[in-house]
Design brief:
157 residues; globular; alpha/beta
């Protein structure tokens, strides 16, 4: 079972394809051989909201395209009923960055949104491109493989 809690700023609701977001989350989990029941929350908002989150949680006062907040399990375990999905974490994406970066890279907003969802999901699963050049290359390769698996290649416009 996969549960994707999706909150979208009303300004972007008509532009965001819910099924694409869910497809990328599922494809990322499948690519990483995760078959557990998973729950993830995803917020799609604007630069101002992402800048505030970036400031509050990372100490960086600048907008960003995607933020990932993994459930690191630091707190005491919470007893949940059998069959309840494991909570993986939260993602926040700036739709303003989706539009700008799609134009910059010359592809569709759907591909850019999918790329950022895959990127954020990989962070929730422990990937970190900031550790080393090798980790960055590995994460980029995983993202591209996930997108190619759902038909969104780099050449897709």
């Amino acid at each position: 079972m996969l549960v994707v809690e999706l909150q979208i700023d009303p300004r972007y609701a008509a532009a965001v394809d819910h099924s694409l977001v869910e497809q990328v989350v599922a494809a990322t989990l499948a690519a990483e051989s995760i078959s557990d029941s998973i729950e993830v929350s995803l917020l799609i908002s604007d630069d101002a909201a992402l800048q505030q989150l970036n400031h509050d949680f990372r100490g960086i006062d600048a907008p960003t395209d995607v933020l990932s907040f993994a459930d690191d399990g630091d707190g005491p375990p919470f007893v949940v009923p059998p069959g309840t999905p494991r909570y993986l974490g939260d993602l926040a994406i700036s739709y303003e960055r989706v539009v700008a970066q799609a134009a910059e890279y010359g592809h569709s907003t759907s591909r850019e949104l999918a790329f950022l969802v895959a990127h954020g999901m990989l962070h929730l699963l422990g990937y970190d491109h900031e550790r080393s050049a090798e980790d960055d290359a590995l994460m980029r390769a995983r993202q591209e493989a996930i997108l190619a698996g759902i038909g969104l290649t780099r050449e897709e416009a």
